[in-house]
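Re: export button greyed out
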Amino acid sequence: MKKVIFILSLLVVALCAQAETIENQITRANELYANGSYDEAADIYAALLEKNESADLYYNYATTCYKQGNLALAVLNFERALRLNPQHADAKANLEFVNQQITDKIEPLNVFFITAFFRGLGRSLSSNTWAKMSVVLFVLALISLLLLIFGKRMVLRKVSFGVMLFCCVFALVSCIYAFSQKRYIEQRVEAIVMDGSVTVKSSPDTSGTEIFVLHEGTKVERQDVLGGWTKIRIADGQVGWLLTTTIQPI
Amino acid sequence: MARKRFALLFLILIQLCLVNTAFAKDKVEFNAQVRSKDVVVGEPFQLSYVLNQKASDVRMPELDGFEILAGPSTSTSTSVSFVNGQKSSSFAYTVTYILKAKRAGKLTIPAATATVDGDAYKSNALSMNVLPQEEGAKQQGSGQQSAQQTVATSQQITADNLFLLTQVSKTSVREQEALMVTYKLFYKVDVISIDNVKFPDLKGFTSQEVDIDDSRRNGVEHYNGKNYNTSILKQLLVFPQKGGKLVIEPMKLTAAVRVQVGQQRSFFGIVPVYNEVEKALSSKSVAVNVTELPKPQPDNFCNGVGKLSMSTVIDKTELSANEPVTIKLTLKGVGNLKMIKTPEITFPADFEVYEPTVSQDYRTTSEGMSGTKTIEYLAIPRHAGNFNIPGFEVTYFDLSTNTYKTLSSESFDIVVNKGSGAPSEAAVNYSNNQEQVKAIATDVRYIRTDNVTASPRKKIWTGSLSFWLAYLLPALLTLALIIFFRKQAQLNANVALVKSKKANKVAVKRLKTAEQLLKADKKNEFYDEVLKTLWGYLCDKLSMPMADLTKENVEAELANSGVTADTVAEFVKLLNDCEYERYAPSQNTHEAMANIYNNSVKVISQLEDMIVK
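Workaround output, generated via the alternate export path:
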């Protein structure tokens, strides 16, 4: 029994110590950033991000990358911060700011506004948030079902019927969004061009016709992979192949 | 008659006096003059001192390098002219010397002194350009050449006596260092005109043409042992814009020369015959070695090369809002002043800043532009407050030390007081005084510093087992609840059954001890227990103390509590049976006991149902 307590306490201490070091490291990197030592700060953030993640950490790393002048890394990590927390206001503002400085300006394809609205709605919350929302709505629907069945007063039963319908529909919608977001993030459909200049070809082959040129920091959508080549689609709908090594999935 | 003559003479005298006083009123001018400042060693030349008034004592200065051959000889001249009835007169008193230079070089004839009406005056000094004698002419002696002619003309056109030359002041310079390029025509022949002048493009240079006044345009120069008449065709101050070997291409022109082709006997005697000959000339190209400025160039390098100094002056440091403030920056020195970039002063963002005005005042010298460049920065503070205009730095390349040098200005603190506008006016305009917050610059937002944590990477919860359980468990719970409540409802529907079941339960509970005694077949104890239980039950149900209950009033009490007469009778019978059986020797005791027990359960159950409390 004593042995077990000893081992448990050791485990707890070790866990605390690790959490402590992560926070200490972040504080140290933040201080380095404040002093203008961006290179050292970026190294610490990058090392932490190898095993850990949080929207704020990605955000700090991205901001440091921007200060170092690495636009592509900055865009990539702002996007990653937003992937974890789509509501991160600072990351949104900085991403917008950095996107104004990258070379490529792509006129996005006009999407039907209802489609754009529903897609934007889905992207606005993380998968887990949608999932939790769905569960909560489902439970609410069950409660209203109980009230509907066992309610004594007519008014209560009418109201609970409406609530139940509403909750059921939205629980389903949330669930769909949760899975769509999960797919979107796990498949890492979107990627950022990391190389200074990348030629996009018409076929997955060095001899393919050059269609257009992309520059660092541009967001692309991955569609297919073949050998060392990835088929991408950019915001204005153009499609082509580029070397997989030149892009980094978000 | 004699009297009349006397009067006339008197009048003339007065007039003369007036004229003299008129002269005396003029400023004394005292000039030294020579026909040409270019002379050849050993050649006599004339030096004149001209005064506009008669001087009593014109004294030559001590001469160094010159010898007086003749003089002084004095002469006076007066001219009077009437123009539109206005009389103007001039008077010249000239003292002339004939001089000879003894050695070549730049020599100076110092100022001479003269006394006019007891006051001493000084003339200007003359700087003379004394050329050495021509090699060929040395043996001939100076006397052979005609006086006042420094260059012997030749009748032959050769490359020696008519050529173009591109002269540069330096052949090895720094980038942006000034050098003077002069295109000159050298001639010893009679040049009548020049035509088709073509100057080359100066590739790799920026150039500034130098004005040549007439006194400088034509001269005499000693070149390759000979004296030439020279004519400056063009003079440029150029600044190389890149390093390396830069070539100044040749210039070209066509000169028309008058040459004597023979003699002709005519009515007037022997007359020379001249002919005009056109000759195309071209200068040689000149190479200039340009050294690049050392790299890296400092950030605030202003493009200036040379020797500069800077001063900044602010016109006021305390002022009212909407009042202009001017900072005057003066760059003084020698170098490529024109090419210097206007330094930027960072005024506080709330100031309305106007484009700076640049004024330049410089002379072109062979070292570059010498003078000042003045830049005035005008700004108008629109709001009251304390402001600081930070100092700034200007870096130039110093040619004397071959290093970059930084000039820094001081920073200025400015106190801006509120404008003197009437308060009522300010109140009226209050709503209009609001301004949009101006974005001075944009930058990324600062990193997050509060509570930034990170946790090991997690899988997305959506679709995981616990996610599905989160649906399943509430669903199952709900289902269970529904089933439970359903059953409950069904039970509720059969109220009587429920009630009797309940009452039976109570009875069984109360008779628990009795049941045990029954099983143990303890006759006396069993009946005691049953009686005790029945009485206890009634006390509880009717809320009456045990002492108040008798067999007599039980019936009435039970009837009051809504118990039917049958049940009351049954209850009373049970009580009686108990008492009877207890003391009666019965054959079949166990059977009787079981009978009593069952009756008790039944009665208590019935009472439980009927007594509403």
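DSSP finds eleven helices and 31 strands in chain B. The button fix ships in the next patch.
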